[in-house]
Amino acid sequence: MKKSLIALAVLSAFAGVASAQSSVTLSGALDAGLQNKGIASNGAAHSITTLGGAASSRNNVTFSGVEDLGNGASAFFTLNHRYNIQSGTQNGANSSTATGVANTGDNGQQLWRNAFVGLKNNDIGDVRLGRMLMPLQELNGGFEAWYGGDTVASVHSDGRANNVATSGLRTNETVYLRSANFGGLVVHAAHGQRTGGGSQSTTGVTIGTTNADLVAPQGFGATFTFGPAVRGFAADRNGQDKKSTGLYGKYNAGVAIIYAQYERSDTNATATGSNSAKDKRITLSADIPMGDFTFKAGYRNMNRDDLNGSAKKLGLGLEYALSKRTKLYSNVGKTSGTDAETQNSATATALQGNVNRKAQFDVGVWHKF
């Protein structure tokens, strides 16, 4: 009788864990609206209006799950897929988000954005294994008013020089460590594999080929929260040995949330492919809540050692919350500066510089589920 009662108690305990301490969640977002941007056509710069998403990160589907393993430990996973809302096609590493046209280079990466599994201990931290953002890009999106690159008004520092994947984005075959919160301090560290880490769209590269990784991608970062202020630091190195470093800050002043970013990245825009040239970006932005409205303003200054002059961008935006999940938005962005800087390329044409200096405008709806 006693043995039967003990066996029943053990089975009941395991049944409770299986039924009550594991969960899988489907989440994501949809964003669609009208955008007016510059375009080169018939040898001149024009403006064109298209329907699409404000940013590729706003149209995605995510499967995530957590299982409680007991004693403060848990297992978790994330699978994230991007798509083009204007066409229903995949938005992967090589897709054209401007047109939403599928690219054959994306066929092998249905889960291009994130795909990882991990273990967590509440007192120590967690470890993730798979494909994911490196620490610099993981952190810097939280220090800009447009959520890290969304909409035409965004002044996000990008985490890299635009013309080359200089270490800020995702890597394959990566181990990512994130500490628990120790008095406001959270530390991040990541290490990819030389054969497959790569960056951006690198998949399955082989040592000895022209696009093989030169080094193993690595990254480190930390944030410290003290009252209404958050400070951050991060440094990444990609498979091509390009490095980026960043300093970040955020302060909630009550009437506004103020953000600041400074990033310095290697760039190989020169014909020799030298790493000596640096891309430097400083951004300031703010969220100003007014009831259901949020006004946004931002400024970015970009300077590259291998190009003459600097580029400046001003962004203004307004959001209206229909609910906790649905927002209406409208933004305008304007870039100015020398031809070379506004093109962000040592070899780009004056025509493209005129295109980039066209004011940009968008209006749309953003729904999260």
How do the strands and helices of this protein lay out in sequence?
Blueprint: H1 2-20, E1 22-41, E2 44-52, E3 60-70, E4 73-82, E5 114-121, E6 125-133, H2 135-140, E7 170-179, E8 185-192, E9 218-226, E10 229-237, E11 243-252, E12 257-266, E13 278-290, E14 293-304, E15 310-321, E16 326-337, H3 339-343, H4 350-356, E17 360-368
Describe the structure in your own words.
- A 16-stranded antiparallel beta barrel has the order 1-3-4-5-6-7-8-9-10-11-12-13-14-15-16-17.
- Strand 5 and strand 6 form a beta hairpin.
- Helices cover 10% and strands 49% of the residues.
- It is mainly β.
- The protein has one domain: Porin (Beta Barrel).
- It is globular, with a radius of gyration of 22 Å.
Strand percentage, roughly? over 45%
| Helix/strand class | mainly beta
CATH topology call: Porin
Give the distance, in angstroms, between the N- and C-terminal Cα atoms. Answer: 51 Å
Helix content: 10-25%
Number of domains: 1
Averaging pLDDT over every residue, what do you get?
79
Features:
globular, 17 strands, Porin, 10% helix, mainly beta, 369 residues
Summarize the structure.
It is built from four helices and 17 strands. It is mainly beta and 369 residues long.
